[in-house]
Amino acid sequence: MNDTWTERWNDRYSNEEFAYGEQPNNFLKEQLENLNPGSILFAAEGEGRNAVFAAKIGWKVTAFDISVEGKNKALRLAKNNNVIIDYQVRELQKLGFQPQQFDAVALIYAHFPAEIKSLYHKMLGTYLRKDGIVIFEAFSKNHLDYIARNEKVGGPKEIDMLFSIEELKADFIDYEIILLEEKEIELSEGQFHNGKGSVIRFVGRKK
Questions:
Q1: What are the Cα distances from residue 151, in Å, to 23, 92, 147, 163, 186?
Q2: CA–CA separation, 143 vs 147, rounded Å?
Q3: % of the chain residues with pLDDT over 90
Q4: Mean pLDDT of all residues in 24-46
Q5: Are 79 and 59 in contact (CB under 8 A)?
Q6: Rounded CA separation 22/53 (Å)
Q7: Interatomic CA distance for residues 110 and 84, integer angstroms
Q8: 102-108 and 175-189: which strand pairing?
Q9: Cα–Cα distances in Å, from 79 out to 44, 56, 66?
Q10: Computed from CA positions of residues 98, 9, 164, 119, in that sequence, does the dihedral angle turn out positive or negative?
Q11: How many C-beta neighbours within 10 Å does residue 115 have?
């Protein structure tokens, strides 16, 4: 990823306030509470709100992002909550994860650049064990209409960075679909996710 992309996220996470709040994403919280804790990988984890929650309920947590500022905030949040997370700042292909290393992978608003997003999904799948779970929530391609009405809801403005049900089916083709839907939801997550938006939600079990 280019320096401009990295600088964008370092800038967003450099403030004292947490950009998306300190509480976990509601969908992720619901899904994790229905699973037995194991090892989980958080992609594009930002300031750590979801990773810290998972650690608090007994998961062994690994996370990565391209933002040093995000990592610093995440480690601070973890310390404040008396948990430990393994957080690395690198691009995915440089992290050295092992095949079938994790019991779950979480992708919560992990809007990677358009040219690599499907590649990253497939790479992440190789690190998931058989019967492992993917938990995904991110903005749908129809979300652009919501941004036009209310920019405070956040999300990418480039349609190729947004998702469709068809893309998720293609990226996670070797999975049992537990849940796959496009849904309008109300977001209240920190400064940058506020208002109604259109999301894709996916829970899949690797075959």
A1: 22, 30, 5, 18, 14
A2: 6
A3: 97
A4: 98
A5: no
A6: 9
A7: 22
A8: unpaired
A9: 20, 11, 21
A10: negative
A11: 10
Given a cut of 70, whether residue 184 has pLDDT beyond it is yes
Token pair of 19 as six digits? 């950009």
Q: Are 198 and 145 in contact (CB under 8 A)?
A: yes
Q: What is the pTM of this model?
A: 0.97
Amino acid sitting at position 30: E
Structure tokens at 10: 């370092």
Could you tell me which of 6, 7, 8, 16 has the C-alpha nearest to residue 72? 16
Mean per-residue pLDDT over the chain, rounded = 97
Residues 56 and 200: their CA atoms lie apart, in Å, by 26
196/26 Cα distance (integer angstroms): 14
DSSP alpha helix (H) spans, the chain: 3-13, 26-33, 49-56, 68-80, 117-126, 143-149, 165-171
Task: Answer for the pair 7, 110: CB distance below 8 angstroms, yes or no.
Answer: no
